[in-house]
Amino acid sequence: MTVHYPTLADCIGSTPLIRLQRLGGATSNTLLVKLEGNNPAGSVKDRPALAMIERAERSGRIQPGDALIEATSGNTGIALAMVAAIKGYRMLLIMPDNSTAERKAAMTAYGAELILVESMEAARDLALEMQAQGKGIVLDQFSNQDNPSAHYQTTGPEIWQQTQGQITHFVSSMGTTGTIMGVSRYLKEQSPEVQIVGLQPTEGATIPGIRRWPAAYLPSIFDPSRVDQVVDMDQHTAEDCMRRLAREEGIFCGVSSGGAVAAMLEVSKSVENAVLVAIICDRGDRYLSSGIYAPESV
């Protein structure tokens, strides 16, 4: 009998959805979080990374051995580096030089080559310049419909099935906006009453993975009509909730995930008998060198 064993790519997705036990306090609501850090490369970005590369392969746009280029602040780059390693691509990643040492090290561990610039806007511009110079092919998570499609095809259906169709609110940080666009589209098709809550940082906040984009750089995959409510999240609130998740729930995650849960807790105060789901987009170990988990910062 032939046994068909999975490959690493087969392990992307199907992440747990768990109930918060302490942070919500006394409430009639059910507060759930989806643990995307359980993906092989440690974040929700594993899903679109695989989808963008596999769709490009099927269309003939790329072939093994090609050089791929992407601008990234961290998680997408790590995920793309992993998929490129699986499939045999050279991966060139352009990222802001203020990214944490852990994220840089993870990318190079998978064999990616890093180019450091001063900002995400500069990274996106340089990626397109390098493609025009024939140095590789840009996957472009910001305009590539395979990014939200990955969440429409996997994340959204998983949440719907795991809540048995009872979800009333979905809360997600917004960076490229791929997660919230794809999940919103799927959930609204199942039940238009589901409320979609997106998170952006307040002016001056620097929360890794989420952005308040200048108009010229707003991801073209973003459709504001798919988001019912936008929450402005400040740095202190996001970091405080992140630490509380670790101490009170045993959930070790990054700052944007702390912000998403903080927003979910705020929404929970104004509803009853609701089922709320927030995305825990990655793990906390890739932020340790930044000091946000240091005892003196608690």
Features:
298 residues, alpha/beta, 10 strands, globular
Explain this structure:
- Pfam families: PALP (PF00291).
- This is Cysteine synthase.
- One of its GO terms (biological process) is cysteine biosynthetic process from serine.
- This protein is α/β, with parallel strands linked by helices.
- The protein is built from 8 helices and 10 strands.
- Helix 2 runs parallel beside helix 3.
Overall shape: it is globular
**Proportion in β-strands:** 15-25%
Strand order of the largest sheet: 1-2-10-7-8-9
Helix content: 25-40%
Average pLDDT figure: 95
Spans of at least 5 consecutive residues with low confidence: none
Order of helices and strands: EEHEHEHEHEHEHEEHHE
- Helix and strand content put the structural class at alpha/beta
Strands, total number: 10
Rg on CA atoms, Å: 19 Å
Mind summarizing the main beta sheet? Answer: 6 strands, mixed
- The tally of helices reads 8
What is the straight-line distance between the termini?
A: 56 Å
